[in-house]
Amino acid sequence: MIDDNRFEVFLFSAAVFGVAVGIGAIFDRPELKSVTKITYTKDIKPLVMKRCMPCHDGSLPWPPNFTKYKSAFSHHKRMEFRAWKRRTMPPGGVYITDDERTLIKEWSDQGAPE
To answer: How many Å apart are CA 16 and CA 75, to the nearest integer?
Structure first.
């Protein structure tokens, strides 16, 4: 009887472990993550020049100047939050595509490389 109980516990433990591993595999799918390195110079600055002027051109002390990497880097989490998550930027009817919003988010997620 004791051996039967141990076997049932073993089967239950194996099943729980299998489910946990399976769930982990579903949520950690490297092929779904961006493999392209997104950089400020190559990807974000052209987007900023196209969609974020004249507000972020550096002509005023505020809003931040996104035409310069150092300033864009120091505000990259805010850029991600306002453009991707809240979708409040850019204001005033300026159109930005979902792909462009995702580009900003992925750049920020990658540590906002220059």
So the answer is: 43
